[in-house]
Amino acid sequence: MSSKGKYSSRHFWQQLLPKIVIAPSFVLILFFVYGFIAWTTYISFSRSRMLPNYNLDGVRPYEKLWNSLNWQVALENLAIFGILYIVICCALGLLLAILLDQKIRIEGGLRPIFLYPMALSFIVTGTAWKWFLNPGLGLEKTMHELGWESFSFDWLINPDMAIYTIVIAGVWQTSGFVMAMFLAGLRGIDSEMLKAAQLDGASSFQMYRRIIIPQLRPVFLSAFIVLAHMAIKSYDLVIALTGGGPGNATAMPATFMYSYTFSRNQMAVGSASAIIMLMTIAAIIIPYLYSELKEKKHE
User: Fold this and answer.
1) pTM
2) Which residues are in the ABC transmembrane type-1 domain (predicted)?
């Protein structure tokens, strides 16, 4: 075989090998992700109850879903949790990033401490905070034993305040990750621009307000996308911390979906709620991906 033929054969296999390696993963993703999305979509228009029923029922499952008081409560809880979770995580993450960006000596020790909670699963986080906030086991009992008998912190069992315990636990776990995103953004800002602003007499507050924070817009957007996605699909943290209670005071769309699909034998309604969640996440992520791809094409 000529050298030209050997080169052509080698080039052919170099082109084919990556496709062969990726093909099994692509097929599995196509079946287990997109295949089940399509199946869930079909079930959401069916008469399924305890088991799948492939007889179509039109939009009745969606009508039942939106007429359900439990679904409305879940959406209200998601709005409260999502807004507070995103705003507090971004504010706290930015503040911590600004503090660490001052080149303090113990930065190398503080960063792992702030990032460590993100290494834990939400089940572990929920369980730990459940013990800590339990009036009979954690903070309230400790304060009473220390002599502060009037201290009371019963948010975990208070229907009006329980949703805020989910916010506390979620912020504790995720704010360090958001801090790392902002810190990377701060370290990427052109130092010459900041030096020029200092020479022009700009104060630290003016530099952050007029130069630094506006340049962190892509980081804010990325943090929003990640946090909104995590808020919408919150399940394990809620189940571990409150179980959706007391009553349904901390029910979320994800807990609603699981309950109606596997406990209440209303699989079509549960599937409809899953599709609504998927559409909500897609409505957040698709415009972001579109803008990112559009920017890359213009570069």
Assistant:
1) 0.88
2) 75-290
